[in-house]
């Protein structure tokens, strides 16, 4: 859903950082609605939401796509790390309750890996 929404929102041959930010916001909104999750529920939203906000802030400051992505990655990392202290409220791990505390959320970890990989690809192939 996240990738599909980004693609459907962009639908253009070329884009700038502001357009990508709008697509990232739309994608975040789509998966938030679909999963009925919010920051603090111990889901991928805990990594994505701060990433999208940080990307938007960097974009507002005139950063390119590559620069904004690089600037936003630490926010995703921090969001991912924050899930270790949470009790899972949504998704498959929600049935674990208190036992989920002390472990990173798998969705937050997975999406952070995706964000890192996209960042590496952007660094290699995008003009600055």
Set out the fold topology:
Elements: H1 2-10, H2 17-35, H3 45-60, H4 65-82, H5 106-125
Stretches where pLDDT falls below 50 for ≥5 residues?
A: none
Query: Proportion of β residues?
Result: under 5%
For the terminal residues, how far apart are their CA atoms? 28 Å
Number of helices: 5
The CATH architecture of the domain at 38-125: Alpha Horseshoe
N-to-C order of helices and strands: HHHHH
Strand-pairing-aware structural class: mainly alpha
Rg to the nearest angstrom? 15 Å
**CATH level 1 name of the domain at 38-125:** Mainly Alpha
> Roughly what percent helix?
55-70%
Largest sheet: none
CATH H-tier superfamily of the domain at 38-125: DhaL domain
* Shape summary: globular
Question: Briefly, what is this?
Answer:
This protein is mainly alpha-helical. The protein contains 5 helices and no strands. α3 packs antiparallel against α4 (65-82) and α4 (65-82) runs antiparallel to α5.
Question: Mind explaining what this structure looks like?
Answer:
This protein is mainly α and 128 residues long. The protein has a domain at 38-125: Serine Threonine Protein Phosphatase 5, Tetratricopeptide repeat (Alpha Horseshoe). It has five helices and no strands. It has helices at residues 2-10, 17-35, 45-60, 65-82, 106-125. Helix 3 packs parallel to helix 5 and helix 4 packs antiparallel against helix 5 (106-125). The protein is globular, with a radius of gyration of 15 Å. The protein starts with a helix and ends with a helix. The relative contact order is 0.15.
């Amino acid at each position: 859903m996240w990738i599909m929404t980004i693609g459907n929102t962009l639908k253009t041959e070329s884009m700038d950082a502001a357009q990508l930010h709008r697509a990232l916001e739309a994608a975040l909104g789509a998966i938030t609605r679909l999963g009925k999750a919010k920051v603090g529920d111990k889901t991928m939203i805990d990594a994505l939401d701060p990433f999208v906000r940080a990307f938007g802030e960097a974009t507002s400051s005139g950063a390119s796509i590559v620069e904004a992505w690089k600037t936003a990655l630490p926010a995703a990392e921090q969001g991912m790390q924050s899930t270790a202290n949470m009790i899972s409220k949504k998704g498959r791990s929600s049935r674990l309750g208190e036992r989920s505390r002390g472990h990173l959320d798998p969705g937050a970890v997975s999406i952070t890996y995706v964000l890192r990989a996209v960042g590496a690809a952007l660094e290699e192939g995008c003009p600055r």
